[in-house]
Input
Amino acid sequence: MLDFDLAKLYEVETRVLNQAVKRNIRRFPSDFMFQLTIDEWQNLMMSSQFVMTSHNKRPKTAIPFAFTEQGVAMLSGLLNSDVAIDANVRIMRAFVAVRQFVGNLPINEEKALRAEMQELKQYIEDVFTDYNDINEDTRLQLEQINLTLAEMQTRNRLPGKPRRKIGFFTEEQRQSNEDIIE
Output
């Protein structure tokens, strides 16, 4: 958010907000607040779809500061308006609530879930290991079984003797088929 928008939000003048920031500059590292460049500011003014009335009151040479979420929270602790104080109190209460929530997680339940997940992971690894663990002897045995089955199939075929036809036959075909078998 820009400094003049925050000033309006916290119900203080922009110059008061900027003075508070300058007096406490160590509280605002670059990931909390930064100043726009002249090009960024001009592009923002040109490209805005809405009329920004609050920037008309600023001196033409004053480039606004932009605040990140952390900067907005830090600023609420510095300003002395009712809105800023209320915002700061709400932020502190939210931090405490989050800390209590995180501190009161059901540890036993979390440990149980972690243990169960580890068990499942180990079981899956064992299953895949067993599945892929066909040793060389087993592979040789399977090859021998396949060779034996192939030999048995070729032995059952008698060369020179025609095979019996299968399917639906007319009476002539049935007579012909019975002649072949005899």
About this structure: The chain has a mean pLDDT of 79. Residues 61 and 153 are 98 Å apart (CA to CA). The first helix runs from residue 3 to 9. Helices lie at 3-9, 14-23, 38-47, 69-78, 82-103, 107-132, 136-156, 171-181.
